[in-house]
Each structure stands twice: as structure tokens, then as C-alpha cells.
Amino acid sequence: MSSTGQPSPSKFSLPIELLPTGLAPIFTHIHPVLLLSAYYLRFPALVADPTSTLLNSLAPLAVVQMSYAVICLPATGTSPRPPKKAKPGSKKTNTNDTSSAKPLTAFLALLLSLLSIPVLAAIQVLFGAPITTHIPQTLLSSAHLALLAVFPLVYVHGSSSARWREIISVYSPIDEVFGAAVGCFVGAWLGAVPIPLDWDREWQKWPVTIVTGAYTGYVVGKLAGGKLLKGKRIELD
């Protein structure tokens, strides 16, 4: 502990590193392109019928997010560093090989992240979402937020109370996972700005701009967290 009563910097976690494979740095750049291009293509359908479009796009989004996690991110409880090479003449072991467990970890992280949907829906209501109407739209938009922001955090941090205290207090070191989550929520919040404006546009209806802001913010936060701001912390003082 420091003299001010705050934990010393050494007590805090380090930013998440990508897996040391040839595919990880490639797919981590393909990933945001997949998200935004798919969202752009289905945007007219989203405006015309938000409920059906958000529902039908949940499964593809889950597949993309799980693929990103398994290919690029270290699963909770594992290290992104490659296993040590065996000495000449020694018997080769696979004690550090967790590749077979990663899909199961991703599936469990998916289930846990979906449990956050009611919480995210309640937060949206607190920030002005309709209470008695548009309930399916609010729940579906919360599901997209959960898959985008919460799922990768659960996959890499698991149930570590220390890590989640840092995340909730917005003092986790910035990396592409935490940066993407912050960008997603900030983007969703900013996405509410056009809704009350008297423009009479079809795309202003709930929750089109919220989801658009979430996807845009996610990609911006992921890129900034992976490169420009990596290792830094958000100082609220």
C-alpha cells in the first residue's frame, strides 16, 4: 500500500497481450472489419425492423466474438507466452497446451456474459430507455452490448474479483479488450444523442442509434486500446 492508502502500482494488473501465434495479429485486425461491414450491410434492415434484425444477428455476432477470443486472446487462467522449449533428449510434454479447453472457456464465458443482459437493460432504462414500451428492443440491444463488451472481458479475466474491481472502477490498464468495452459503452451513450432531436428520421427510433454507437465505439476503443493507449489508465481525478 502507498502512503495515500491506495494500492501501489505493482499491485495492479497488466494489459492483456495477444496470443503469440501468427494468426492472432492478423485476425485481430480482420475482426473489426467483419463487425463493421456486417453491421453496415444490415443497417437498412435494422432501421426497417429493429427487433427481427437484432435477434437474427445475435448468433453471427456470437460466432465472430468467440472466434476472436479463441484465436487472439489468452483464456482466463492461462498465459499468452509460448510454452518453454523442451531440452534436447528430454521427453516432450503438453502441460501448457490449453488449446482444447479454449472453446469450452469461450462457451462458458458466453453464457456468463448473457447473464448481464438484464443488468444492461436496467442501466439503459436508468439512462432514459422506454420503460413500458420497446422492451424486446431494449433487451436485444443489451444482448449486443453483452456480446461486444462483456464477453471478451469474461473470457480473459474470468471471475477474478481483483480484475473486476479494476474494470468496474474504470482503472483497469487499457488494452484492446478493456478499450473496446469502454468504447462500446461510451458509444452507446453518445448514440442516444440523436434520438430526441426533431429531425423526423426513421433511423432515430429506439434503439438504432444506440446499437450503431455501440458498434462504432467498440471498434474505435479496440483500435485505440491495442495501439495508441495500451498500458495507460483512465485517471478520473
Defining key terms:
9 helices, mainly alpha, globular, about 240 residues, transmembrane, GPI_biosynthesis_protein_Pig-F, single chain, membrane, Glycosylphosphatidylinositol anchor biosynthesis protein 11, transmembrane helix
Specify the overall morphology.
globular
Integer-rounded radius of gyration: 19 Å
Rounded mean pLDDT score: 88
Major β-sheet, in short? none
Number of helical runs?
Answer: 9
Domain count: the total is 1
Helix content: 55-70%
Low-confidence stretches: 1-10, 90-97
- The ordered string of helix (H) and strand (E) elements is HHHHHHHHH
Q: Which structural class best describes the helix and strand composition?
A: mainly alpha
Please tally the β strands and state the result: 0
Question: Strand share of the residues?
Answer: under 5%
Q: Give the distance, in angstroms, between the N- and C-terminal Cα atoms.
A: 19 Å
